[in-house]
Amino acid sequence: PASVVVAIDGPSGTGKSSTSKAVAAKLGLSYLDTGAQYRAITWWMLTNGVDVDDAGAVAAASGKPVIVSGTDPSAPTITADGADASGPIRTPEVTAAVSAVSAVPEVRAAITALQRDIAAEAARTTAGIVVEGRDIGTTVLPDADLKIFLTASPEARAARRGGELKARPGDAGVDLEATREALLRRDAADSSRKTSPLAKAGDAVEVDTTDLTLEQVIECVVTLIEDKR
Ligand code: C5P
């Protein structure tokens, strides 16, 4: 095909973002972080007085913010109503609220439409796109050229997430046990929600990253994509 559309799904801490960005940069593809979009709409709701525990209020506000994602893997950007959201979307407040917001069907409908537009545009005008998330292979892009589902043991995922948090300036130390619990809680919420839960598509290639380095995962995904081109 002239362009390639790749869906990469899986729970948090499997190396999804690092892998997706690196693979896209290496192969000259566009990149879309769909988690950042759900985080951006969550941040907008938190800063605009929407009660994120009230699904009705979240649904009513779901169409209000304009979320814009850049698709350059070497410099991903995200804005909500023109405001740079790339910093605030990584705060613990947003991380704690995002699963509830992203479980609301009206939010998913709005963000899914956005994701399909971005993927179609990239497929039309570039070499293709890597889209990472939870429901890309199952719901957003069921016709993707390649679907990958990344997994890893809960211990490996908590350790990676803990390492990421510690690497951020201002963070003295991170409680690994608390990180592990928060991560498992978010995955349980994402996997059990009614609308478009985190799930492996029937035709996805599963890659267990527990004992692989990031470089090995990147290499593996690059090979899978090259086989499709
Ligand atoms: O990938 P990340 O951890 O940034 O995603 C944040 C949250 O966004 C997830 O925990 C999930 O609730 C939601 N999400 C989703 N569907 C996607 C991507 C993310 O529901 N495709």
Automatic annotation (TrEMBL):
Pfam families named among the record's database cross-references: Cytidylate_kin
The UniProt record lists the keyword Cell inner membrane: no
EC number: 2.7.4.25
Gene Ontology BP annotations: nucleobase-containing small molecule interconversion; pyrimidine nucleotide metabolic process
Record organism: Streptomyces chumphonensis
Residue intervals of the Cytidylate kinase domain: 6-226
Record keywords, A-Z: ATP-binding, Cytoplasm, Kinase, Nucleotide-binding, Transferase
Any one GO molecular-function label of the UniProt entry: dCMP kinase activity
Location(s), subcellular: Cytoplasm
Record carries keyword Ribosomal protein: no
GO CC field: cytosol
Protein's name in the database: Cytidylate kinase
CDD domains: CMPK
Family: Belongs to the cytidylate kinase family. Type 1 subfamily.
SUPFAM superfamilies: P-loop containing nucleoside triphosphate hydrolases
Binding site for ATP: G10, P11, S12, G13, T14, G15, K16, S17, S18
Catalysed conversion reaction: dCMP + ATP = dCDP + ADP; CMP + ATP = CDP + ADP
Predominant location: cytoplasm
